[in-house]
Specification:
single chain; alpha/beta; L-2-Hydroxyisocaproate Dehydrogenase, Chain A, domain 2; 2 domains; ten-stranded mixed sheet; two-stranded antiparallel sheet; globular
């Protein structure tokens, strides 16, 4: 079902006058809390010539109309329902899959996981039929399971381009950066903390030994800060009384999108992502990834990790291996 046809045609005509804008971005799950916030920010990005909002919810009509009242030259288009998903994907240079999130009241973690698996399966099957695969960023939990699952579907249907499939882990880096800065009473903009591993409490590894500016943490203080960074999402959910950290999540997806859009424009960008990588025998791994217009190039490596980080890395590798197997087994049981 095509949404707001006349409005879309009018907005599309306008975008021909803005040659600076050159990329089409599709937000799958655009009517969700995270999706709406993300679309609002993408609406004003100078490299986005067209923003596509896709969701199964009838409220997509209202979201699209709401976005149309933000006066920018970007074209808007909306789609509702499973039967229009292929159109939302084939028009895109970048697809951002925003998953459902448990809010502790209306959706359990189990139901959320099931919905996200169904969404990623549908996207992967549709992508496998396209002649050219767009860049794809998945921001849905359990990310360590869903990215390998999507990759496996694409492989089975001869539509696989591993360099273009990303699990978005930017939120982990932003949280580490913010908490590290707060601990030291420094400006967050002046801090950087690499994060590697997977995207879960048991697999995320903040590399405080590689942080800049460097702070010599040890003992109890080091363990407490690492634990706090890994528990960030739970902490926010507790304070928000069961609701998820939608604002920081939407911002983190925007940061990822900016990096990919920069790469599509001909540059080389770096994004935090969980991608196909067998450096640790897991098949997939997360870190800072260099990207060009063809997809992922290479992941940044680190040496001289602390004893704690080496221990966490071993545990993370075990957790990621189990999650990757879960992703593949879902297809075997289907």
């Amino acid at each position: 079902m095509f949404v707001l046809n006349r409005l879309s045609k009018y907005l599309c005509r306008k975008c021909f006058t803005t040659p600076v804008r050159n990329c089409t971005v599709s937000v799958i799950g655009g009517a969700s809390d995270i999706g709406q916030t993300l679309c609002m920010m993408l609406r004003a990005q100078p490299t986005v010539s067209k923003l596509i909002v896709y969701d199964k919810s009838e409220s997509t009509n209202g979201v699209l109309m709401d976005l149309s009242h933000i006066p920018t030259d970007a074209c808007l288009k909306g789609y509702i329902g499973e039967e229009t998903l292929d159109r939302a994907l084939k028009e895109a240079d970048l697809v951002l899959a925003v998953g459902a999130v448990p809010d502790g009241r209306t959706m359990s973690k189990t139901k959320c996981t099931s919905k996200n698996m169904d969404m990623v399966k549908s996207i992967a099957y549709k992508l496998s039929k396209l002649n050219t695969m767009p860049m794809v960023g998945i921001s849905a939990d359990p990310l360590n399971v869903l990215v390998p699952m999507a990759s496996e579907i694409l492989k089975q249907h001869s539509g696989h381009d591993p360099k273009k499939l990303f699990g978005i882990t930017t939120i982990d880096s932003l949280r580490a950066q913010s908490l590290y800065a707060y601990y030291n009473q420094w400006s967050p903009r002046e801090c950087m903390v690499p994060v590697i591993g997977g995207h879960s409490r048991d697999s995320t590894i903040p590399l405080l030994s590689q942080a800049k500016p460097y702070c010599d943490l040890n003992g109890k203080a080091l363990h407490e800060l690492v634990a706090k960074i890994r528990r960030c999402e739970e902490s926010v959910r507790d304070v928000k009384r069961g609701r998820t950290p939608t604002l920081s999540m939407a911002y983190s997806i925007l940061m990822f999108a900016r990096g990919i859009l920069g790469a599509l424009g001909g540059g080389v960008s770096k994004v935090n992502a969980f991608v196909e990588n067998n450096d640790f025998g897991t098949g997939y791994f997360g870190g800072l990834v260099a990207v060009d217009d063809k997809g992922a190039i290479e992941m940044q490596r680190y040496s001289h990790l602390s004893q704690l980080e080496c221990h966490l890395l071993e545990r993370s590798i075990e957790a990621i291996r189990k999650d990757v197997l879960k992703g593949k087994s879902v297809l075997e049981l289907a």
